[in-house]
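target protein:
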Amino acid sequence: MTAAAMLWAADLTAAVLFVVGLHLTNRPATARRGNRLSALGMGIAVVAAVSDVVQARAITATGTLVLVAGALLGGGAGLVAARRVAMTAMPELVSLFNAVGGGAAAVLAIHEFTARRAALGPTEATTGALDVLIGAVTFAGSIIAAGKLRGLVPGRPVLLPGRRVGLAGAAVTAVVAGVWLAVRPGSSTGLVVLTVAALTAGVLLVLPIGGADMPVVVSLLNAFTGTAVAMAGLVLGNLILIVAGALVGASGTVLTRLMAAAMNRSVGAIMAGGYGTADTSTGAAVAAGGAVRSVSPDDVATLLAYAERVVLVPGYGLAAAQAQRQAAELGELLSGRGTAVSYGIHPVAGRMPGHMNVLLAEADVPYPQMLELQPANDELGRADVALVIGANDVTNPAAHRPGNAVSGMPILDVLRARHVVVIKRSMGHGYAGIDNELYSDPRTGMCFTDAKAGLSAIAAALRTLVA
């Protein structure tokens, strides 16, 4: 078999593994296997690409050193991140991955423009200009998104004076520079103007978006990353980059639309910004609508001891307290007593798509117990107790009424259950910046405590009751 045939076979194998791996991530039970297959495919693609460069003798000694150093640094950073980054920090890590992907794609196109200049044909130049535009916007926007998720940039919408004019100006400048670069690929001025304008647009695009919309933003930037990578593949004539980028771009686009639908908002309205605030931690004792009924862990344990069906509803408060294992242990304890236990998971709970699923899977919660929005609401209608663990806006009954920040948003209707208990440290708002009317409902008991400590106390009291 010739070297070219071997390269083609390796790329085809990697592409098939990408497709199969992506398909397997559709279900929590097979997601880990899909992740492994995708990683294997990427490994094959990297080895094939390096072998092709070496066999073609298209690399100098310095280039070889850079290649090896880059592989060691990138692989080492990925390994350390995979082992050390907490699951609660996964959203900002995904945003950084988006930034790296978009930035790398843009750098590839910039290199082609500077190395080949006028030798680039019209199609390659146009594709390269789009690559720089999308990649630079993704890089800058993802850095800002990661900063918001990490707390280094304010989570609330940052509404700079004249932001819309500035964004429009940056967008128009980027488009004009991109067209100029497509017509005259050798223009260094056009390349610099396009890069700077695209980076500026990325910053101005994400700064006004509030924390409530971060799951959608992360998903959209992921789609941008895939599109930029596909464009880089077209510039380089690399099949595996085109396939991988197209898969990521398409899946990210579909996921973005699903996330927006889960919030009952259009993608355009989300990207317009100005919605939501950073999470607050005020200690107010009364929510809109009346007094709050406080309960102790012992009270909750007694309620659970007599329940036949229980639905646990995790939110970002569970993630922040790293209480997924305590939730799983409580669920296992209840299941051992014959109680029917399930977990109601809202699509935008947490700070990225699938955040709650990932946390619960890490704690070995049985996959069949993880219910999506509609099945969870059906189960809540039969439940004796709904135990809300740090979830705020996604359980707010105000969504059923017009005229507020969450109006029309599909929620986990926990009030369908006979009894509701909310574990939360305070009466603070969620990212939508409004009171949660659930907290003052007569059927709701508020257990004011840290999620990890509260779940542990409830489990201990339950063991004492049933001993």
